[in-house]
Amino acid sequence: MKNFNYYQPTEIRFGCGRLSEAGEVAAKLGKRCLLVTVPAFAALEPVFDKVKASLADAGVEVAHFDGVVPNPTTESITAGAKAAKAHKADVVLGLGGGSSMDSAKAIAVEASHKGTCWDYLWFSETQPTEKTLPVIAVTTTSGTGSHVTQVAVVTNTEKRDKSAIYNPIVYPRVSIVDPELMVTVPEHVTASTGFDVFCHAFETYIHPNASPYTDIIAEEAIRLVAKYLPVVVKDGANIEARTAMAWADTLAGLCIANAGVTLPHGMGMAIGGMYPHVMHGEALAVTYPDFMRYTYRSALKQFATVGRIFNSALESESDETAAEKSCEEIDRLLKEIGMWLTLDGLKVPEDELPQLAEQCLVLPDYKSNPKVATPDDVSEILKSSYRR
């Protein structure tokens, strides 16, 4: 067995009804909380009110920053950090999907350090310190895994670049995973975030930093996605399926926190950075059919296992056949959940594909792919993904 490390400092509170514990959790970490969310809308406004009441009942003074935007920007983070400073916040609670939780982490850094969050990216010499405000994550989607990772993704709109803070200091101290919060998530958001769960688990599974520990939880996350994602896309109120996907999301988040992601995530980050209107799950789904066919021969065992998870008839086939057929199984999943996409359909300008190809190789994720892509390889994947 290979040597490996596994680290997870986040206390996970999982299960229906756990949202009521938000105040108790926050009171252990501070007395002045910045609540970080998207602007209120009908489905989530009662949740916001419940959290505020829970915080107040626990004696925690709360200020509400509701300026989170999809694909959080440096501007939105700065606005949140100013709100945190004005409130003299000593704890930050991110409530929502990945954008809200990543915003909370980045705000926790910027509010307690000089400069902006962009000064503390994964490759920067200057890194966040112990001054970083403690973060609580309450997830309302099943997709990003942000509630159990050391990552905060941020977009610099001026640079058309999407990057991330990557530091153990931004792990949430506590995450609350309450599947009851997810029953109102719209169908397409459910599909997009749910496919992100699969990507996290699968890319960890084929990653060189994978370990026996992450293999176990990645395989379980993939099994749950295969069984429950099509169900929950069709019936969002199915609490069994919502709970299963919430658990799969958590497992997949634990995976990426300890191993990492590969080529599709680097490409997806580039797509989201240049075209912020594209959801992260969409940016992954659009390249996955071609990524699968590009990579499967270089990781036959893992691809074969995934193929068999999605189609038990492949149990009797060789690894070579099962691995090749896994590509068709993921095609089928994407079509079933309404995520069979093209770059053209996502309104990516065709004349910008060369520039996008260059951006796809900025993050080092591609280097961890079982088959390391060249610039020409990435260009071909993008061209094939443009129209189908």
Q: What this model shows, in words?
A:
- It is built from 14 helices and eight strands.
- It is globular.
- The longest helix is centred in the middle third of the chain and has 23 residues, at 212-234.
- It has helices at residues 22-27, 45-57, 74-87, 98-110, 187-205, 212-234, 239-258, 263-274, 280-285, 288-295, 300-310, 319-336, 353-360, 375-386; strands at residues 11-14, 32-36, 61-65, 91-96, 135-139, 151-156, 161-166, 174-177.
- The protein has two domains: 11-181, Rossmann fold (3-Layer(aba) Sandwich), CATH 3.40.50.1970; 184-386, Dehydroquinate synthase-like, alpha domain (Up-down Bundle), CATH 1.20.1090.
- The chain has 388 residues and is α/β, with parallel strands linked by helices.
- The strands form two sheets. It has a six-stranded parallel β-sheet with strand order 1-8-5-4-2-3, sandwiched between helices. A two-stranded antiparallel ribbon has the order 6-7.
Question: Could you name the CATH homologous superfamily of the largest domain?
Answer: Dehydroquinate synthase-like - alpha domain
N-to-C order of helices and strands: EHEHEHEHEEEEHHHHHHHHHH
Overall geometric form: globular
Major β-sheet, in short?
Answer: 6 strands, parallel
State the low-pLDDT regions, or none.
none
